[in-house]
Amino acid sequence: MALPLPGTLTGRLVTLEPLSHAHHDGLVDAARDGELWNLWYTAVPTPDGMGAEIDRRLSLQDSGSMIPFTSRRNDTGAIIGMTTFMNIDAGVPRVEIGSTWNAVSAQGSGTNPDAKLLMLEHAFDTWGCPAVEFRTDFHNVQSRAAIERLGARQDGVLRAHLRMPGYLRDTVVFSITAPEWAGVRVGLERRIERHIGRRLAQSTPETAE
User: Fold this and answer.
1) What domains are there in the chain, each with its CATH number?
2) pLDDT tens sequence across 20-38
């Protein structure tokens, strides 16, 4: 049993395209924006390893445990990163939103909350998930804060959960449940509106006196 593939998800600031090898060069450029692979508490592929990472994610899609996307900014058309539905349990159904990374220049642009809104809408409104999960490294304070800003609540910490290069990772688990979704949606929509408003204000020339 597998969840039906969503296809392309289009928001106001970002578009999530089904991952393919055609995205390779754009993803390499996005990862180089901030040299994200050097962040020890997250797993971002190096330029040389991008092809293998695309293969890995597509293989997991074939097995039914992951649905991977490439993220693209709507204003510039630039590829900015990757995200996925992962650890899919189609029987519940329940999914985790994760394996996400974004170019440094896109951080704070509103593209991340817009992507999360698209994915949460699909998970709750199309697939009928009773809950959607998020996980991150205990040491990744930025990621933990971003997940909490979405409106997710912390479920707990899985101690010594994953073996990472040089250490055992403690994994922090968050979730949003179906009854909480309406409030989370409103919060995300307001955040996106603020980003759009700031962009409009910056692009509008001042009227000469």
Assistant:
1) 9-203 (3.40.630.30)
2) 999 999 999 999 986 766 6
Predicted pLDDT at 209: 43
The values of phi and psi at residue 65, to 5°, are -100, -5
Query: Cβ(113)–Cβ(192) under 8 Å?
Result: yes
Q: Is the pTM of this model over 0.85?
A: yes
Tokens of 145: 């804060």
Cα 132 to Cα 176, 194, 209, distances in angstroms: 5, 25, 52
**Cβ neighbours of residue 45 closer than 8 Å, sequence gap 6 or more:** 27, 31, 37, 52, 53
Calculate ∠ Cα 114-120-126, nearest 5°. Answer: 125
CA distance 162 to 169: 5
Closest CA to 129 of 83, 85, 84, 68: 85
Q: Quick: pLDDT tens for 124-169.
A: 999 999 999 999 999 889 889 989 999 999 999 999 998 988 889 9
